Predict the structure of Drug resistance transporter, EmrB/QacA subfamily.
Amino acid sequence: MKTTQEQSAQNFNQLPLVMVLISGAFVAILNQTLLATALPHIMRDLHLSANTAQWLTTAFMLVNGVMIPITAFLIERFTTRQMFLSAMGIFALGTLICGIAPTYPVLLFGRVVQAAGAGIIMPLMQTVLFIIYPVEERGKAMGMFGLVIAFAPAIGPTLSGWIVDYYPWRILFFIILPITLIVLIATYFMLKNVTERTFPKLDVLSVVLSSLGFGGLLYGFSSAGNIGWGSSEVLITMLVGALSLGLFIWRQFILPQPMLEFRVFTYRVFALTTVIGIVVFISMIGGATILPIYMQNMHHFTAMESGMMLLPGALLTGFMSPITGRIFDKVGARWLAILGLTVVTVTTFMFTDLTSTTSFAYLTTVNTIRMIGIAMVMMPVTTAGLNELPKRLIPHGTAMNNTLRQVAGSIGTALLITVMTNSALNTPPEAGAEGMIFGVNMAFTVAAFISAIGVVLSFFIKSKERKDTRGKERELIRGKRKALT
């Protein structure tokens, strides 16, 4: 017997719903990338130090990371419309607060409100896509999702840099706000309820432990990249985070209705593809974080030039995502992951011999090819893992996947910056800029070995969803033959 949600999911046009969800995700990601380029202007206008201003991005990341694990509970407690309308409404309120903020504390509060809404949008979108699309079409759907993830960061920093050069930084938020309101109105008229509600009870202790656990780890790893692993601030926050996370996981196993279901890792394909996704994310951070530092601080390129170097790769990743999604629907994730991670590994090794004379064309070409490899892996691997889960666990799988990506991004940034810094310190003082570049090369060496681990793990992926589809096709053929005889 089909549930009401299952019936409704089959009786409406998927395209308008998907367009609403993707628009919401695009606005949320674009907002996150716009602020990076604008921070120096905000610092000058509000008379902030770099340490104070960075909380505008750190606080957003922390609240966003804390909200994501809670979404699995929220998706089971509220309807799709209630969730998405609330998320976009909260995000719009936060954007308005940021736009009119007269002081730094008000601006920081607005960023926190924004993050509370944005943290719900991404996992909810993935969950809905997996409900409304059958297994054999989910690659295509996730490909569209990948297009948004890649395209928004590609245009965000460049657009932001151009705007703040000519207009006040508050314009950035007033560009985001009307788009958000349009999405909110479209959501009201076009979004359908497709998620299934099981009405779990809220376990307050789980919320507290989850917030302390994921928040502590995210803050600890992010801070380690800037102030060092030996800092008492880093050690204390990471210790509190690790202990809280351990207690949170233990509590989820003893609760009859866990807030976040860790039993998703008992599904082998999901566990394996999640680890591969973490590996790819850590490796990808090398290009996004280390290359701009190298180009601006050691190679005397401008910020605009470093952004232009990253732009072709980001754009091509977006255009490749729908293509790799369709390929995944036909052949599964295994060979896409093997080939993509091989490309990532080889091109990352090509960044281990940088010098003060490495050309802009070389950096752009290698990074673009590297991002094509990442596009071949990221969405197909995520889709293969979530396809393994039964429908009731998909909200928990998407929440887990998004949470671990946040943590992986923090770990990758902290790890590679630490390797870069320590390697540079171990070179003779007379080495100068070449000593710092040696640190960059060592950071990419570590990133290359990490992605090589991903290549090995990819051989263990089995496209179970392909087997299921072929089995259904064989049953259909047998049924037709029986009917004919």
